[in-house]
Structures are given as C-alpha cells and as structure tokens.
Amino acid sequence: MKAEDLKNSILQLAMEGKLVPQDPNDEPASVLLERIREEKEKLIKEKKIKRNNKESFIFRKNGHFYEKIGKKGEPVCIDNEIPFKIPDSWECVRLGAFSEIARGGSPRPIKQYITEDSNGINWIKIGDTIKGDKYIYSTREKIKPEGIKKSRYVEEGDFLLTNSMSFGRPYILKTNGCIHDGWLVIKLNEDLFYQDFMFYLLSSNFIFEQFSKLSAGSAVKNLKIDSVKKVFVPIPPLNEQKLIVKKIEEILPFITEYSKYQEQLDKLDSEFPDRLKSSILHDAIQGKLVPQDYNDEPSSILLERIRDKKERLIKEKKIKRNKNESFIFKENNHYYEKIGNNEPICIDDEIPFEIPNSWIWSRLNSFTNIVMGQSPKGESVIESTNEGMEFHQGKIFFGDKFLEKSNKTTLKPSKISPPNSILLCVRAPVGKINLCDREICVGRGLASLKPYINESLNYLYYALLNYEKEFTKKSTGSTFKAITKTIVENELIPIPPLKEQERIVKKIEDILDLM
C-alpha cells in the first residue's frame, strides 16, 4: 500500500468512528446540534439573522436517516445517500447547514491593484500553497485596499477550499487577506466543529469523492456553492473530535516515515532493471558472465586476422595506413603498447580492470573502422522524401537497439556509415549508441564504428553500452558537450575470443529477454 493510500485509510476510519473508541460519558452530537438550533432560533427572533426556508435537518428514526427541508417540508428517507454507518453518539449534517460558504472574487484588471505598499491587503493565491500543507501563513503579493470591495475578504481561522484545476484541497488561514474566484471560503460554526477535525474531514477521500461527483460533467473541475452546501458531514461529539485529531497526528509521522521508505523502494524498483542491466554488461566485458573455454581460438589470433584484413583493404585503397597503429600486449604481468615504429611503453595506469588471459586489450581504432560524421554541404538535406540517401544528425531516431528510419535524406552524402555499423553519439548527448543495418549518411553528431570482423558487431555493441559515462567524462564544451575523433579512436576495449563473444552475446540477450 502506498503512503497516500494508507493516510486515506486512516482518515476514512476516523470519519466512520473506527479510529478511537466512543466514550458514553461524552455529550452526544445530537444535544450539541439541538443547542445550536435553539441559538439560531433566538437570533432569528431578535432579527439578527434571517430564517433559511431551505435549511436541512437530518435525523435518525428506527435505524433510518431522514431529512426535512425547511419548517414545512416532509421528512424524506435518505439512507441511500448515507455512505457508511456512524456511531449512535454521532450525527450527520449537510455542510451548508452549520457553515457559511462563499466564493472569492478578483478586482480587474488585477495588475492595476497589485501593490508593494506595506499597507496593502494580502492577496491569497493557490500558488502560495504547497499540496499537503495544512496552513496558509503568508502571501507573495498584496493588493490595494480599494480592491477589497471587488474581492472577498477572509480572516484567520477561515477554511479555504481550492476551486480550480486542483479543486477540493483544504487549508486553514493563519492570516487575513482577499481571495480570488479560484477559492471557496468556509466559515464554520466553532461550537460544532473542532477546527483540526474539520481539516482532516475535508482532507478525506469521503469528502473529495462527494466533491468529484458534484463537479462531474464539467470540462473544468469547479465546485458550485449550492453543491458544496449539500455535502454530507459526519459529526462526532466535540470531545471525540479532539481525540480523533490526537490519534491522527500520532499516526501521521509514521506515515511520513513510511513514505520516505516507500520512495526509496520505488526508486530502487525503477532503477533496478537499469542497474541489473549495467551489472550484467559490466560483468560481460570483464570476462565474468560466461566461463572461458581454453579450446577457443585466443584473441591474439583474432587481432592477427584483423591486421591481415586491414592490409588487404589498404592495398585495395579502401582505407589508409595508420602510421600510429596501436598494438597492446601483456608481458610479465604488465601491459605495454607499441605505437607504429616506436618503442613499447607501459600502460598499466590506463588499464581499468583485469581480463582473462585469453582476452586482449585494443584501441577502438585498431578494432573498428571509424567514420566521424559531417553535415552535407549546402542545402542538400531534404525532409519527408525518399530521394537520395537517408541522413541522420544525432540521437533523435535512436531506437531501443536499432536505428529507426529518419525523415531526412540528402542528395549529396558526405560521410557514409556502412551497413552493420554501430552509431555513437559524439555530441549532445555523448555516448549513446545504436546498431544500424543499412547504409546512411551521418552528420556531425554521430560517429560510425564498423568492426573489421563482422562477427564482433553484437559483442562490440553490448561492450560499448558500458562506455557512456566514460565518454561523457571525457567530453568538453560549454554550449554542448562533445568528444573528438581522437577520444573515440583511443578508447580501450577488452576483446574476448570470437567464440566467447558469441556466448557472451547469447547470455546477455537471454537475460534481457527475461527482464
């Protein structure tokens, strides 16, 4: 159960009389109501207030609820409107029977009434509140005193009820001021309602559901005064109201604590798939996901095959010779790198973790053919057409694994990514990758990485999923972060034997299918 649901359950138990035991010594709510009615009759006779000919009077008789409207109205059974049973010492009333309810108003144009004068009147807006708070202590703005007659003046102790998109939220005023028409104000009979009890009552789902039904059918949720007056309110004895509040406020800190743990758990739940995937991929590139098979052809042979293929491509003038070609090897438990014709140098400080003996480290430039993207010249990029070559500028068409089709093409492709390549985002954002099964033109936001050995494509894809943070860390730029070709070329990547690459890919995909 979520913390909010738990809180709602506690409030519901409170409003049904199930949160604290009843005390038979308490003055029942019926006596309290009768005394208030007698007081009202006295005020009517003294002509201090007018009689409400539509005043509701709800009473119980033979286990049933009846309602009498005005002095001459006939009692009508309203059992179908009473949502739950209440204790015998409680009563049920309409909210409007013992309170005054009014809507706020705005002086217009409001900008002409806003003032910074210290004598200004607090201008109470919904923006001055925080959802879940109980009180409104202050406001950000004030209006000129002459705005009062065009608004609604409210006082400390009044209840305010939101009456806009986030309708039905109650607050107790701890200041005086004016309210706009996004508020309803409820002035309670303090002899009948303990203020804090009324706050929790108005905060309950029982009341909110009544508000929702009253505003049903409206394009914008809005509470009408006459409708709010008809809301049913259960009334416990005053002493019990105080005991209910005391119990609620004893429980609420535990719900708050529960909410914190729940948020942590929800965060863990939401992050768990990504964390699990990250852990699996990290184990994969360290040689910990599948066992090594010493019958596999070692990675050193794989690199020899790559070198032979690169020599062939150089002779065919499909690629240029790299005079700074890197060759990494291990000797006496140390890693060395030979670049071109230079002497080998120790690179132990660059090696991030140990790998199995049958694996090797390689720079990306030695293992893949890298093409950095470049935007086509002039205005050769066309939108929503099948003419020319498909063009991709950045991550916008990245899918879960495979690149989706772009809505742009170019008649003058500049840099081309061959089929079965990995696309790497090199700026805004950095480090995201996708597989691409077709020939496309790549813009400046992308780099194309084509393994010299096609069978390594899927392993390289999963291996590079580990490198987003590493590339991001190495990125530079103030307007947007980017990485250079040199950074991409020099990134170290662990290379297992080809057969082990296949086992790693299968294991990863088997696990991901279960997630």
Assigned CATH superfamily of the largest domain? DNA methylase specificity domains
Strand content: 15-25%
Alpha carbon gap, first and last residue = 24 Å
Q: Uncertain runs with pLDDT below 50, 5 residues or more?
A: none
Query: How many independent structural domains?
Result: 2
CATH architecture of the largest domain: Alpha-Beta Complex
Helical content class: 25-40%
Strand order of the largest sheet: 5-14-11-12-8
Indicate the CATH class of the largest domain. Answer: Alpha Beta
Give average pLDDT, whole number: 90
The helix count comes to: 12
How big is the Rg? Answer: 37 Å
Structural class: alpha+beta
Number of strands: 29
Rough shape? elongated
What is the CATH T-level topology of the largest domain? Adenine-n6-DNA-methyltransferase TaqI, Chain A, domain 2
Q: For the report, how would you describe the main beta sheet?
A: 5 strands, mixed
Q: What features would you describe in this structure?
A:
The protein is an alpha+beta fold and 515 residues long. It has two domains: 3-257, Adenine-n6-DNA-methyltransferase TaqI, Chain A, domain 2; 299-514, DNA methylase specificity domains (Adenine-n6-DNA-methyltransferase TaqI, Chain A, domain 2), CATH 3.90.220.20. The chain is 31% helix and 23% strand. The chain has a five-stranded mixed sheet. It has a five-stranded mixed sheet with strand order 6-9-7-13-10, with no helix packed on it. Strands 21-23-22-27-24 form a five-stranded mixed sheet, with no helix packed on it. Helix 1 (3-15) runs antiparallel to helix 6 (238-285). The radius of gyration is 37 Å and the shape is elongated. The two termini are 24 Å apart.
